[in-house]
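Running log. JK asked me to keep both predictions on one page so they can be read side by side. First protein, sequence followed by its tokens:
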Amino acid sequence: MLQKKSKIIALIITIAVIAFVIWFFSRPKPLEVTVSKAQTGKVESVVTNTRAGTITACRRARLAPVSGGQIAKLPVTEGQHVEAGQVLLEMWNEDLQAQQLLAKQEAVAAKARAKETCVRADVAKREAIRQEKLAKQKLASEEDVDRAAGNAEATRAACIAANDSAKVADAQVNVVQVALDKTILRAPFAGIIAEVNGEVGEFVTPSPVGIPTLPAVDLIDNTCIYVAAPIDEVDAPAIKPAMPARITLDAFKQHPFPGKVRRVAPYVQDIEKQARTVDIEVDFEHVVGEQSLMPGYSADVEILLDVKENTLRIPTEAVLEGNYVYIVNRDSHILQKKKINTGISNWVYTEVLSGLTENDIIVTSATLEGLADGLEVRIKENNDSQ
């Protein structure tokens, strides 16, 4: 009887060991999670552009002659720096130059005639005065006095008319000069020639109303640039002029530029009906001299709405809907789902106001399927939980 009982006990133990071995090797492996420590640092609340912005020159002029004609001189080339008032293009205008020379000569002749007429008027006036004195001495008749006075009045009127004719001649010179100026394209400000469309000998015509054509010369003032970028209409009310900003460029990925909001458009763009935006403009606060920031570069902007220094923060990807996080027990590797109170955040960090302490281990792969309160997990190596 005792031997039979021992065999039963041995069988039960064997079955238990086999069951344990089967369970041990068939049990589900702990989920592997990535983690991060809750740490003290800086958190920024930012707003970013919805589509790539563009570096824009404060002044850009796409210039073309007022009237059509044949290009006679084209003294500038693309990439050349020009000063304000410098000639960029001149059309054939020898006919107008001849007219201008003729008008100037006529103006000179008109002034000479006016001078001659006015001298005669002065002589006639003195003669009229002399006749009046003689008449008082009974040495001249009334007829002589009237004749001298009439002649003086007539020559005075002729002097006035001659001076007016001289003014008309001067005005004619100005008329020709205006016509001549229309054939010369000058730089309205100092800048860089971005584009030249045309060659000496070619004909250019002004753009018809409502039909844009290529400019003869495209001039850019590259001494003043800013970034124009679209912001989602939901974020726009929080943005104000003079707010600090950060500008990043594909051409200088490792060097963000400090900036400042210069303008927020007072209207919403509805180019994309389901993604309405508001245009903003951001100035560069300073640019390193050796960095040539050309208009046309694509750029992204971050508007800094708020900044917290030395605050408790965790990766934003660790925060679940409802402001919950998973904390990993350092010893047992058991998960604990915990509610936290958050402050400002961005796509990198979220400020924690309460619910966590520094160096708590937080699961950053929070959206991993299967995570649950009380679950044992395995921490992925090579992360900042070490």
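And the second, directly underneath as requested:
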Amino acid sequence: MLYNPTAGSGMFTSHLDDIIRRYEEAGKVVIPIRSFGDITIDDFLAGLNKDTYKEEYSQIIAAGGDGTINFCVNAMMKNNIDLPMAILPSGTANDFAYYFDIPHDIDTMLDIALGGNYSNVDIGVVNGKYFINVAAIGQVVGVSQRTDPTLKNTIGVLAYYLKGLGEATNLKPIPIKITTPEKVYEEKMFFMVVMNGKSAGGFKMVSPNSEINDGLLNVMIFRETPALELPVLFMKILQGTHIGSKHVLNFKTDSLILESEMDVPTDIDGELGAKLPLEFSVLHNKLRIASPYKEEM
């Protein structure tokens, strides 16, 4: 179990004994690995016996926000570890967990983690790194990195909204070129997201038509928009009604290359991303996630 003691309000550590007890009652031993500790999840997985680890271990638990899940998935892919994952969401937005309707109370989280139901999900790849929920590009997408941690822990997702609104007036159009197997796009955009899930930065319906196991990435480009129309677009994004807007370009693809002559900030699952150009692909049904659903999604 990789856990982030500072995620969200930092209250996860008070439930550590409950988690260990529930797993012991199920006949399992939890090995906790603390984020930012001396031993990383990468170190631990690299040391597993590749011939016998499936006999010794039944599950990897990611306890934290989307960044914690991202660290786990990258370590798993790097070390070729094929184990199912349980999510105990304790971050600020918990966008990936939102897709699976995983609640915030610890008892129900553990019911799902130990329930034995798993959904197959895709994993996105960008410049050789892996992401589970979203890659975001543009001046606004670093909001999660620039938002004060104390503010995030105090007022949660609202902190993202306030920070985003404060930066909206400073937006400048960015010329981009997107090459896909189907088409080449040249646009001027304010920001864009390449989605695997539906939610990003606490905006629950950024990508309402995303499916996490269809082998495709959902690309959402928010085009240059007159300042007077930005508040209306912002409200549509909050409500999930922006699809079809003339200010939004939306399509699905299994691979793309993103280029720009400008230096554009990028963000991968809430963490600092690579510089452009970015090359995207998708690994279809590469990961199994503990979910409340009996049938695969």
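Observation for JK regarding the second prediction: The two ends are 24 Å apart (CA to CA).
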